[in-house]
């Protein structure tokens, strides 16, 4: 399968994401009825009628942009984990998170987004994050950089932390893995946005410099990690390996503004962990 012009493909994906946001998500924001929300695996794992309908719409529209491509949606995968086997095939695969930050959406908090990644032969080749409230989209193509659609297609770069650039005490971090809790005092500030999409977005605009997640579902991370990398940031699994969306049950990723900062944080984490420092 040959990929079409990437700019045209991205424009089509952004248009599809914007359409579901405008027609299916925003009209229900802060207007959800009781029957519009249900739980999945546990009380905090929520899904709404907007999640389901948006995923269904994107599942129909995205493959039309790339004939022969397959789709993995978060809600479809929750119902049948077997769809993840698509990632092992040679065909290009769209990975959809119809509403990332569903709990925020349910609570009326305007930090949620539509996330889409395009994966081929185990590698994320394009990724998009659409913020319905702001009406803007971050997107990236492997090897071609990251862009902000909605502001004249502005090329984006990860913002460096305040000087001194390599001092952890000048950086804001989002630490979601419990074993990193012992490092919280090393950073200037800890923030949690309740949406991986907004966490990754914050890495590009200077609100956050360091981000750590433990469990890595591809719909939550494939697009964001590519955007961060293409914007000039450095991210790796804690093992040092590159993130691979097709690998099952991956655990532990760290994003930093530079490789030097990444290595400093990993070394500090390993040193304090080995010394028996409580992890919190």
Proportion of residues in β-strands: 25-35%
Taken together, the total number of domains comes to 2
Spatial order of the strands forming the largest sheet: 3-4-5-6-7-8-9
Structural shape = globular
CATH architecture of the largest domain: 2-Layer Sandwich
Task: Describe the fold and architecture.
The protein is an alpha+beta fold and 280 residues long. It has two domains: 6-155, Fructose-1,6-Bisphosphatase, Chain A, domain 1 (2-Layer Sandwich), CATH 3.30.540; 168-274, D-Maltodextrin-Binding Protein, domain 2. It contains seven helices and 14 strands. The strands form three sheets. It has a seven-stranded mixed β-sheet with strand order 3-4-5-6-7-8-9, with helices on both faces. Helix 1 (6-25) packs antiparallel against helix 2 (49-65) and helix 5 packs parallel to helix 6.
Write out key terms for the chains shown.
280 residues, alpha+beta, Fructose-1,6-Bisphosphatase, Chain A, domain 1, 2 domains, 5-stranded mixed beta sheet, 7 helices, 25% strand
Task: Summarize this entry quickly.
The chain folds into 2 domains: 6-155, Fructose-1,6-Bisphosphatase, Chain A, domain 1 (2-Layer Sandwich), CATH 3.30.540; 168-274, D-Maltodextrin-Binding Protein, domain 2 (3-Layer(aba) Sandwich), CATH 3.40.190. Helices cover 31% and strands 25% of the residues.
Strand-helix topology:
Elements lengths: L5 H20 L11 E3 L6 E3 H17 L4 E4 H6 L13 E8 L1 H6 L5 E8 L2 E9 L4 E6 L3 E5 L4 E2 L16 E4 L13 E2 L5 H10 L4 E6 L2 H13 L3 E4 L13 E6 L2 H16 L6
Parallel strand pairs: 3-4, 10-11, 10-12
Antiparallel strand pairs: 1-2, 4-5, 5-6, 6-7, 7-8, 8-9, 12-14, 13-14
């Amino acid at each position: 399968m040959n990929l079409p012009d990437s700019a045209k493909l991205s424009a089509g994906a952004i248009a599809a994401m914007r359409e579901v946001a405008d027609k299916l998500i925003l009209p229900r924001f802060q207007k959800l009825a009781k029957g519009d929300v249900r739980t999945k695996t546990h009380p905090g794992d929520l899904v709404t009628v907007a999640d389901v309908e948006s995923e269904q719409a994107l599942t129909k529209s995205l493959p039309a942009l790339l004939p022969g491509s397959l789709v993995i949606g978060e809600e479809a995968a929750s119902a049948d984990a077997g769809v993840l086997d698509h990632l092992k095939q040679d065909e290009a695969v769209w990975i959809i998170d119809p509403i990332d930050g569903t709990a925020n959406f349910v609570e009326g908090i305007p930090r949620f987004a539509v996330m889409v990644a395009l994966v081929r032969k185990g590698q994320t080749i394009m990724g998009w994050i659409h913020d319905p409230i702001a009406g803007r989209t971050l997107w990236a193509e492997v090897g071609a950089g990251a862009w902000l659609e909605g502001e004249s297609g502005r090329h984006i770069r990860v913002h460096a932390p305040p000087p001194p650039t390599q001092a952890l005490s000048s950086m804001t971090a989002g630490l979601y893995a419990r074993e990193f809790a012992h490092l919280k005092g090393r950073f200037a500030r800890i923030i949690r946005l309740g949406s991986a999409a907004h966490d990754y977005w914050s890495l590009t605009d200077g609100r956050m410099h360091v981000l750590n997640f433990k469990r890595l579902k591809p719909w939550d991370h494939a697009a964001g990690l590519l955007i961060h990398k293409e914007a000039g940031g450095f991210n790796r699994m804690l093992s040092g390996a590159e993130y691979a969306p097709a690998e099952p049950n991956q655990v532990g990723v760290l994003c930093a503004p530079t490789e030097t900062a990444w290595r400093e944080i990993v070394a500090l984490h390993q040193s304090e962990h080995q010394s028996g420092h409580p992890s919190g």
